[in-house]
Design a protein that fits this description.
By secondary structure, the protein is of the alpha+beta class. The chain has one helix and five strands; from the N terminus they run E-E-E-E-H-E. The chain is globular, with a radius of gyration of 15 Å.
Length: 88
């Protein structure tokens, strides 16, 4: 695995700041950010995702809150219009 640093929370203190890296091998984003609070997790579970998909968060996954100003660091191909599985 080879990581490429993409960005860190602007005007960050010395530790505990949201950070984003890109895995150059897989294209995955590695994100350090704030753990979502219980109210946010519950609301995400209530909203759900695609029909029939579990809303439970497995032990090997986490729900994080990525600040909006960190979106600038997420790389996107120029031709990309929509991504992911919106369920629609």
């Amino acid at each position: 695995m080879s990581l490429n640093f993409l960005g860190i929370w602007p005007n960050t203190p010395d530790d505990g700041s949201p950070t984003i890296w890109l895995d150059n091998t897989t294209g995955d984003l590695i994100i350090q950010s704030w753990t979502a609070d219980e109210a946010t997790v519950r609301q995400a579970q209530e909203v759900g995702s695609v029909p029939g998909h579990s809303t439970e968060v497995p032990d090997h996954e986490s729900v994080i809150r990525l600040p909006a100003n960190m979106l600038q660091f997420i790389p996107r191909p120029d031709s990309e219009v929509n991504g992911g599985n919106s369920g629609t």
